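To illustrate the input format used throughout this study, we show a single complete record. The first block contains the structure-token representation of the backbone; no residue identities are included at this stage. The design step must infer an amino acid for every position from geometry alone.
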């Protein structure tokens, strides 16, 4: 991204943002995600207490958070000109979406193949069926509305763009990832204040997972300059976790672990997330080297 000097401060060309406005945008983006997620969990909680099926409550959560986050995000993009590069969905956006989704699928496939070859797991039975496909598609739609779209719009979109007006890329990366971790902490606090049970348990393993996950998603945004690749990776990771690695009732195949933790640790964390960081990081470094070499 090109940048120019204005009154001794660095402002990114094409952003139209002054540093003070950038920090305001960052705060508004983060607050939008926290409020949207809390409102969604509260509505879902009320729906379940009223006797609604959990699937309907999940759909309501997704609709609520996206209905709050998306309009505010696009309104803020108009107020603080930043390149979210999300709509309209172009051929490049579709390619980024598919590429982002394909990366965790490829890495997970390699991870399972390697684990089988090393004797860490045994794949016992495959369960491909129409019901599995329907479950994956339905869950992907809810995950898109409840998790992938709002998080990418706010955190990798508004928050990072705001931080980048004042901070160098590395510091903006770190700041965005730290604020990403702070979202569930803040939502948990609001849930406690409202009398709800916290949605997630915050512990060291969870924090490490969020830090690594936020890193790979931010790197993908950096590689493409847009959000569709991180949306695709986000969605594919969730579906791999829920329908492949986690042995739920509906799943792609049944496997037995000879080495405990192979699925969640080796496949999901080491291969998909850390492997994704290595791949996206290598691509980003290559892009930066080409850009530096091209400069006169």
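Output of the design step:
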């Amino acid at each position: 991204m090109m940048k120019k000097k204005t009154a001794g401060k660095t402002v990114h060309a094409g952003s139209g943002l002054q540093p003070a406005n950038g920090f305001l945008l960052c705060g508004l983006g983060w607050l939008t995600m926290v409020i949207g997620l809390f409102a969604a969990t509260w509505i879902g909680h009320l729906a379940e207490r009223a006797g609604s099926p959990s699937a309907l409550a999940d759909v309501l959560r997704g609709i609520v958070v996206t209905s709050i986050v998306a309009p505010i995000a696009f309104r803020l993009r108009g107020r603080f000109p930043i390149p979210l590069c999300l709509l309209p969905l172009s051929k490049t956006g579709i390619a980024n979406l598919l590429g982002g989704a394909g990366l965790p699928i490829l890495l997970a496939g390699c991870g399972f193949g390697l684990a089988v070859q090393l004797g860490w797991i045994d794949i016992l039975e495959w369960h491909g069926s129409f019901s599995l496909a329907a479950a994956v598609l339905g869950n992907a739609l809810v995950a898109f509305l409840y998790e992938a779209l709002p998080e990418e719009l706010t955190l990798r979109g508004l928050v990072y763009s705001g931080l980048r007006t004042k901070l160098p890329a590395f510091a903006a990366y770190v700041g965005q990832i730290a604020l990403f971790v702070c979202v569930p902490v803040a939502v948990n606090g609001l849930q406690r204040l409202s009398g709800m049970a916290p949605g997630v348990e915050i512990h060291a393993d969870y924090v490490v997972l969020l830090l690594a996950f936020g890193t790979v998603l931010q790197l993908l945004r950096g590689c493409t300059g847009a959000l569709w690749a991180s949306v695709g990776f986000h969605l594919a990771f969730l579906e791999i976790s829920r329908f492949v690695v986690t042995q739920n009732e509906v799943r792609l195949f049944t496997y037995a672990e000879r080495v405990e933790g192979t699925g969640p640790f080796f496949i999901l964390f080491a291969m998909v997330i850390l492997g994704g960081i290595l791949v996206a990081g290598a691509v980003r470094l290559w892009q930066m080297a080409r850009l530096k070499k091209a400069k006169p």
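Structural context for interpreting the output: The first helix runs from residue 19 to 49. The helical segments are 19-49, 54-79, 91-117, 130-164, 169-193, 204-224, 228-245, 262-294.
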